[in-house]
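User: We ran a pulldown and think these components assemble together. Before we commit to crystallization trials, I'd like a predicted model of the whole complex to look at. Sequences follow.
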Amino acid sequence: MKVAVLTVQVPFVRGGAELLADWLTENLREHGHEVELVRLPFRWNPPRAVLDHMLAARLTRVRPADRVIATKFPAYVVPHENKVVWLLHQFRPVYELWGTPHQGLEDGHEAARVREAVMAVDNAYLPEAKAIYTNSRVTSTRLRNFNGLDSKILYPPLRDPASFRCESYGDYVFFPSRITSSKRQELLVQALAHTRSGVRAVIAGAGDLPEHVDSLRDLIDREGLGERIELIPAWISEERKLELYANALAVVYPPLDEDSYGYVTMESFYARKPVLTCTDSGGTLELVEDQVTGRVVAPSPVAFAEALDELAEEPALAERLGERARRRLDELDVSWETVVETLTS
Amino acid sequence: MKVAWFTPLSTHSAVAEYSTHVALALAEHCQIDLWVGDDDRHRSTPLRTFEFHDEPALLHRLAQYDLAVYNIGNYDAFHGAIYEASKWRPGIVILHDRSCHHLFAAHWLGAGEARRYLDRMEALYGHAGRERARAAIEDRQPPIWESDEEALRYPLVEEALVGALGAAVHSGDHAGDLRDRWFGPVGELFLPSYRTAPHNAPARGGDDRTTLLTLGHVNRNKQIDRVLRLLDRDRELAARVRYLVVGPGLEAAYGQELVRYTQEAGLHGVSFLGYQSDEVVDRLLAESDVCVNLRFPPLEGSSASLLRQLEIGKAVLAFDVGGFSEVPDGAIVKVQPGDDDALELALRSLVEDANRRDSVGAAAAAYAGPLTAERYAEAFLDLAETVDSWAPVVRTVDRVADELTLLGARGQLPAVELAGRELETFFGQIDAKPLQRGLGPGDRPALGRFLRRNDVPEVTGHFHPFPMTEVTAEEIALRPGADRYYGAFIEGRLVALSMLRGWNEGFDVPSFGIVVDAAWHGRGIGSMLTDFTLERVPWLGSERVRLTVYKSNDRAYRMYADRGFSEVERAPIERAGERDERIVMVKELT
Amino acid sequence: MRIAVATTIVPFVQGGGRNLFMGLAEALRTRDHEVEEILLPFWPDPAEMVEQMLALRLLDVSHEAELLVCLRTPSYLLRHPNKVVWFLHHHRPAYDLRETEYADSTTCHSEAIREAIYDSDQLGLREASRVFAISRVVAERLRRFSDVAADVLYPAFEGDGYRSGDYGDYVFFPSRIAPVKRQALAVEAMAHVRSDVRLVVAGPPDVPEHLEPLRELVERHGLQERVELLGTWIDEERKRELYSGALAVLFPTQDEDGYGYVTAEAFAAERPVVTCTDSGGPLELVEDRANGRVVAPEPAAVARALDELAAKPEEARRLGQQGHRTLDELHLDWDEVVRVLTQ
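Assistant: Here's a predicted model for the assembly, 1278 residues in total across the polymer chains.
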């Protein structure tokens, strides 16, 4: 089948959603489809640029495709009789980010009109799709609350799940993620100060801002944890990352109100490691179930420390949770096979 | 706010008279300059004037203004230069007449641009339009503007609105017509009265005939011939009236026709007084009993003379069309155009029944009384806010239209219609709910107006975190710092303001405050904006929020209690001579 | 420099400048430029062209890139303060192919749409700081159709890996099979050929329907033993092998826009090129009896040229080697292209 995958392109920026479109294209081809990956330019500043690019998307034509799979706003407004949407996220500035410091659109009448138009367009054109799939329960819930639309969850798989391995349940917990305030690396450091077991930690990820990394380092020093915490404030190679996953006791990932489960969560499960997350972490709770596939605790250092100690003192528990976590992925049927079949049926 | 008000200023221009009054009223709220489009003898005004008609280079200064307003009427000598200026800087166009055909035809033909006239007639009215215009240019048919019906069939108003941000007219009927022709925001205002004191009615000296008066340029639109024929048929009525026809134009064909008919029919009670000064006209108005103001078809957006007549409490007889329809029954006597029997009945009734005249006149004064220039100024500034909120839409539509033109896409191509439909999907929803959002730099003028409008004891009694001034508006809009401000908007106008403050002063816990415009109480806007604001607090990194409320403001106290606020402090306080209590409440956000 | 390179594609159709686009992007990257690739779908149905053109005008690709290079029509409708167009071809159905045998029902354009295509081409081209054409043929069309003066900038050709062998008993014609390439003319010519020379035609048909008639033509002339129709892409290695041992390369295409990769490949392999007087771009490389043959587009004329070469293979060698020198002298390399586009 001739499949057009539609996504969005912001000049000189490549992020998670772009990678996912690439992987989807690869996998569709592997299943014998003829695929054209179409990336539509998009800008949102000044706010009126949203209107221009939304209209441009609506005037775009990909007629020769037998099936169109659209993944992001405004790519999903391209008209086609046989369109499905795999929604990674809508245009968040006018939905849950409206009126918050993360809005990203300068406040004023222009932003207000953009919001009006985006909502009108979403409500008018998302229903054109034969089916709407989303990447998480959070996204589906938002779609229902904001636009009254139903959707099914279709979890995005990792590119190469088989590469994640489990070698042992070691003496450290692993926290791989960008170092930024919303990920809350501080919480792990403060928790470690309260533990009795002496469990260690490896924190790895590029820092958003140098100040964040510095203040994290200061915190580690103040708590006297320099020997127990290895801080790697940079991207680490795939090989190193896989090794750290392979030998971790557990993985720590307690972001604030994340909008989807997070790749870290899924990577951990493939590596058969339980995930420690918080009650207010948002999307991670779709995969992490307390005492089943990991631990879900209050975002306080003491509660966190207790969970860490429990696992450190009983690695068999970590193994049990980790195995269950791995089985959970099978239950959820997260695979490229499923994704391709679903999106092309 | 700085406003450039483009207008004729000629003593012969009714629009000029309107402008001098309205601009003066606006001057209470903003800095307004008159940009003068003609070089006739000017009316006097204390406002600053710019004779751009003589010095086009002045137009470069338009960049310094926040808003440009263009008064457009159907006369090239007064409005042609203003139309040209409007292309420099998009603004609000005030349309005084239903048809602008004469303005544009004279303007283009006068400049040797017959081709442009034909092209625009075709673009707007198709092949038929072009052919009719060509026939006029080639003298095969009379000019279109000589017939009221044709002038209204090809009004060319769209031309006045090319590139405009918004339009204003003075009657609902006119607004409806304009909305059919143009996609942008159309404000329905009203012609304000000028509130100059009327003359006292002088003694009549024994003449007990009822005085009828018709004012204005003598032309067929005024239907004077109809009245004369009526008097001719009903001699008994004719004997009881003195009919004064005042206004220039007697030397033209229609005027001559009227004079001849009157003489031949021996209608001695009818007098044609020709042009008279404003002074004399006022005196005649005061003397008259009934104003006969029959106009058909309605050419003006609204009638200034009508308003004057209503304001001084005269009984007016008019056709039930255009702006006249909108005057409430009882404050005016309306008949269907073409129904001569009804006209006769109505005229008789007014002539014979002085009580009826008095009661209609009193109702007229009561109706027109509140239609002041001050109220007009407020309404106009409200419109300006709405227009501001529409600007992104208007600009987008214009931009798309421009690109289609550059691409050589002619009107009949499906792509053009398609683009229009898509834009309709974007912006065509009408959402009655208030829009809530953060405030930005562009909101400064609206915020300034809002604060000054609400600088009244009913509001500042409970709400006084800062002076309700333009200076505060500027601080909030341009330099909020770490504090946050939000607004609720209806039709683009700011109707409520909320805030989370304290971070600028180093506090960890923000204080919540809200003020709803006095005119918009009781609609749930306060609750809505309160909820919206409180929902944002967690995003700002705070775990709790506090506020202050007075015991006397019971409704507010209960609203906060309902939302999970608990008292932490209560202290007696004396306010405006009364005993009250100042209560601090806090809400935890987990 | 941060450079955006843009082109249009017809979804699921290869060719159409995609290779040139990829080659250019890669060439810029290896010379240390940061490149953003912009490939936009453009479906050439006249009924939907104007709205797609409007879409291009609404996009903003200007912010981060200092230079925008636009290739295939109508990508040059994109707006940018420093826009350079490397023009491949017009949308011919709206221009000179309207009433030729190469127009078809899908290319029927109303007057209004044609006007819009003319106006929009001018709009996009006039906005450009510089306009280049891939050949003199195209530059001439730009002048004639769009009143735009363009410099010629030939696409680069990577000639490594082409080897030169004997001058054998077959003539090689590698190209996608389409009426405009005139494989039919080549087959007809073979019916007139007197020597034993064979013809090898390699390339997939643009549309499957183009292959059958060609096979039938071969059968009708009883040329099954003399003409080999490989109606599919052949891999690089096989192609180079066939080039290296050919007597000559036959390329009788009609009105080609560019100089033709076939022409360059033949010269890289030191093969003479036999082409026609109306072949277009290749004539900018091929000179009659200097590095190839240029003959009238008639079967008999083509046959005569092939017979002459078959009779004197040493002439084929002489022409072929001169062809190789022609190629060297032209510097069809990316260094030149990048230098010109980024100056």
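The interface with chain C takes residues 400, 403-404, 406-410, 412-416, 418-419 of chain B (CB under 8 Å). That may be worth checking against your pulldown data before setting up trials.

User: Thanks, that helps.
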